[in-house]
Write a structure and sequence with these properties.
Blueprint: H1 2-19, H2 35-45, E1 47-49, E2 59-61, E3 64-66, H3 68-75, H4 79-114, H5 121-159, E4 183-184, E5 187-188
Antiparallel strand pairs: 1-2, 2-3, 4-5
Length: 189
């Protein structure tokens, strides 16, 4: 009985930790402010994508890190950015499905092998292929998230009438631009 209570407690703790979402502050722009204040607003509300396909999507805004549900509302301000964000989210889900299938196939193969049964090599091949497909979808999702952040930051700059101004500030994480193509194992996709 004690083991059941401890197990249920651990499950509830994991669910609680996994279900908490930190939301980014709502973007409220003062378009008629002075140039320096508009630059400060841009620095505060611009986003840097810092996730990757191993750790999942992560977004930095004003020195805070948010997961995708926490930043979604701000990305909805620009239709193009939000469209890319939704596309990245769909690609991430498809990659996770293929990853789960691969885990099941390889796990069944290994379990059957360790139990002394006759393992099917087809399952091992299917699991390996599913891993490759899952990673490809995860990498594509990563690029879509980066592209959505780039589009959002361009939208923000235009809304604040900072198109001609050079904005320089330091934010944590990588700041790379998505060039619209993906190279994986020297194969252009």
């Amino acid at each position: 009985m004690r083991k059941i209570i401890v197990s249920l407690s651990l499950v509830l703790i994991i669910l609680f930790i996994g279900c908490t979402v930190k939301y980014a502050p709502k973007t409220e722009l003062k378009k008629d402010a002075e140039l320096e204040e508009r630059k400060e607003q841009y620095e505060k509300y611009s986003i840097v994508y810092t996730g990757n396909f191993f750790t999942g999507p992560a977004f930095n805004q004003d020195k805070n890190v948010y997961k995708k549900d926490g930043i979604r509302d701000n990305l909805q301000l620009d239709e193009k950015a939000y469209s890319k964000f939704k596309s990245g989210s769909a690609m991430e889900a498809i990659g996770a499905i293929f990853g789960g299938v691969s885990g099941g196939c390889i796990g069944y193969y290994l379990g059957n092998s360790l139990a002394g049964g006759d393992p099917s090599n087809g399952l091992l091949i299917a699991g390996g292929a599913s891993i490759v497909v899952g990673v490809i979808f995860a990498v594509i999702a990563d690029g879509k998230y980066e592209e959505s952040v780039t589009l959002y930051n361009k939208y923000l700059k235009n809304e604040l009438n900072l198109s001609e101004e050079k904005i320089s500030f330091n934010k944590p994480g990588r700041q790379r631009q998505f060039n619209g193509s993906l190279t994986l194992l020297n194969i252009k996709i």
